[in-house]
Amino acid sequence: LAAAGVLVVGRGDLLSSWFFVRNLYTSGTSPAVAHFWSLAVEEQFYLTWPFALVLLPPGRRAGAVAAAVLGLALWRASGVGHFGQTVAGGEALLVGCLLALVRHRAGGVQPATSRTVAAVVVPVSLVVIALVEFGSDDVRAIDGLRSVSLFAVAAIINAAVERRPRLLDVVLETGVLQRTGRLSYSLYLWQQPFCWGPLAVAF
């Protein structure tokens, strides 16, 4: 689209997005590829996380990740972390890693109690996410609360892999959500130019 003149994408924006270092390129001016900062964080995570697992002793991995999550949460709470910084995407990835490490060490939740717990955890977590992500401007302006919503998402994921509530089964297994999940990466990749970029007016 840029080559055809439909989108205006600067050379630095294009190269930093292509090589997944958009989060480190602070001089970008092209909104069509602004969202590549988060994809860059993910790619950098995929390249570094295996080395972290190799270097950290198994018994210390969860503690080290928890310390990193706490540090990033405090950073966000201080108002330094914001959209576009590595901390924003790194914290979310590490919360997921922490959940996986804790589940591995604990051996999962006992099936006899998991459905009851999930029936409470899921709706409470959804309320927390809604308040933090879609609440008033004053609430959404508090960066530290975003860390709370990350743990709420982790709680829902934990419930989903256990013997989850039947309502969650029904919702997650709908054809629309399954199709959306398969297309989620492409949807995220293309939503910026068509929804927020110069092509948004046309659509």
Task: Give an overview of the whole structure.
The structure is a single chain. The protein has 203 residues and is mainly α. The chain is built from nine helices and no strands. It has helices at 11-18, 36-55, 61-77, 86-106, 111-134, 137-140, 144-161, 166-172, 175-196. Helix 5 (111-134) runs antiparallel to helix 7. The mean pLDDT is 79.
What structural keywords apply?
mainly alpha; globular
Note the topology.
Layout: H1 11-18, H2 36-55, H3 61-77, H4 86-106, H5 111-134, H6 137-140, H7 144-161, H8 166-172, H9 175-196
Helix pairs in contact: 2-4, 3-4, 3-7, 4-7, 5-7
Gyration radius, in Å: 19 Å
Largest sheet: none
Please tell me the overall pLDDT: 79
Number of discrete helical segments: 9
Detail the poorly predicted runs. Answer: none
End-to-end Cα distance = 16 Å
Helices and strands, in order, run as HHHHHHHHH
